[in-house]
């Protein structure tokens, strides 16, 4: 079974590759542009088990060459940081929309059995109460989530138009090892370790549903192997917490004072709350295994052990 994993040197992608390498069922090719967020060190310990190719998913010739003999494709490659998308949306459209289009064209051209699009709960927008199901409307708020929604809509259209064998997963906020420290949890862990301030947006009450990255990886594998073609699967951790709660937990685990917290001007278009209904993927036999508190402890431990990688 030959599987192409795009964005496999990034946070979730590399954890997924580590997970797949735990058994010998797969011949793995990783395609990654190695942007600021991608790092070959994320693949330490498994480099001899995989083939790594540096390149972009929007590169027509390269993708065509790589996909020719692949059985499955999982697309993690994306520009992923909301703040960067507000500063410079162009590269988000190029990677998250055009890149997805290029992958889909090649799935269509070759005999690829399954293409899995990795997406996000952010495509649904904000929700005051209740949870989004896979039937909910897409209502993205940022150039990041709009670009992801654009990719998702292309995936759905290729299924309806060409019967392209696609599946989409939309997960909630991931945390865990190997995440580039611009996102809240790794940034705050590393800042706190250096006694730097932890900049919390607005009033800190924005709620996210947090999922440990290994739980998401297992959910992705479940959807890939057992999911029905053409379907979307939400993968949520069931841990709704606001940013201030997370910040306080991190300070507690590192034994640092709350005086490190500073409140900064809110992000433009900042969604108030995300929440996912994951009943559909649970029917395939998946459920989250890690408790939030244990997973956060593990994550803090990992950043302590790998601290030197992230020093400026
Ligand atoms: P990340 O930013 O850590 O990694 C993205 C990877 O993609 C990097 O290795 C980068 O080098 C690579 N990449 C970027 N542009 C590329 C291109 N044009 N061609 C090839 N490679 C390219 O992201 P992540 O947090 O691991 O997210 C992976 C996927 O999961 C994304 O599609 C994201 O939208 C989705 N997602 C993330 C979260 C989260 O909380 N991190 C939640 C839900 C969904």
Automatic annotation (TrEMBL):
User: Which keywords label this protein?
Assistant: Lyase, NAD
User: Which coenzymes or cofactors are required?
Assistant: NAD(+)
This enzyme's EC code(s):
4.2.1.46
Q: Which GO terms of type biological process are on file?
A: nucleotide-sugar metabolic process
Q: Where is the signal peptide?
A: none
Ranges for domain NAD(P)-binding = 4-299
Q: Which Pfam families match?
A: GDP_Man_Dehyd
Keyword presence, Lyase: yes
Q: Report a single Gene Ontology molecular function.
A: dTDP-glucose 4,6-dehydratase activity
Q: Which PANTHER family match?
A: DTDP-D-GLUCOSE 4,6-DEHYDRATASE-RELATED
What the entry lists under NCBIfam families is as follows:
dTDP_gluc_dehyt
Name this protein carries in UniProt: dTDP-glucose 4,6-dehydratase
**Which lineage ranks, top first, belong to the organism behind this chain?**
Archaea, Methanobacteriati, Methanobacteriota, Methanomada group, Methanobacteria
């Amino acid at each position: 079974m030959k599987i192409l994993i795009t964005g496999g040197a990034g946070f979730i992608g590399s954890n997924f590759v580590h997970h797949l390498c735990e058994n010998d069922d797969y011949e793995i090719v990783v395609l990654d542009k190695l942007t600021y967020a991608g790092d070959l060190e994320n693949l330490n310990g498994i480099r001899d088990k995989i083939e790594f190719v540096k390149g972009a998913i929007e590169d027509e010739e390269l993708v065509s060459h790589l996909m020719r003999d692949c059985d499955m494709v999982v697309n993690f490659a994306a520009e992923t940081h909301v703040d960067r998308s507000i500063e410079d949306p162009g590269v988000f459209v190029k990677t998250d929309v055009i890149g997805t289009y290029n992958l889909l064209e090649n799935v269509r051209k070759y005999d690829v059995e399954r293409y899995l699009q990795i997406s996000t709960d952010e495509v649904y927008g904000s929700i005051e109460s209740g949870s989004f199901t896979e039937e909910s409307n897409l209502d993205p708020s940022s150039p990041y989530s709009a670009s992801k929604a654009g990719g998702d809509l292309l995936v759905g259209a290729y299924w309806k138009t060409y019967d392209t064998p696609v599946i989409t997963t939309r997960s909630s906020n991931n945390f865990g090892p190997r995440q580039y420290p611009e996102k809240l949890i790794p940034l705050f862990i590393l800042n706190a370790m250096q006694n730097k301030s932890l900049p919390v947006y607005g009033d800190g009450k924005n709620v996210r549903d947090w999922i440990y990255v290994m739980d998401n990886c297992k959910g992705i594998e479940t959807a890939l192997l057992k999911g029905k073609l053409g379907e979307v699967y939400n993968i949520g951790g069931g841990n709704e917490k606001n940013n201030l709660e997370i910040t306080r937990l991190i300070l507690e685990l590192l034994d640092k004072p709350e005086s490190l917290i500073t409140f900064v001007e809110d992000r433009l278009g900042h969604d108030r709350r995300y929440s996912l209904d994951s009943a559909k993927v649970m029917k395939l036999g998946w459920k989250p295994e890690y408790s939030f508190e244990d997973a956060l402890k593990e994550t803090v431990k990992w950043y302590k052990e790998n601290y030197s990688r992230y020093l400026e």
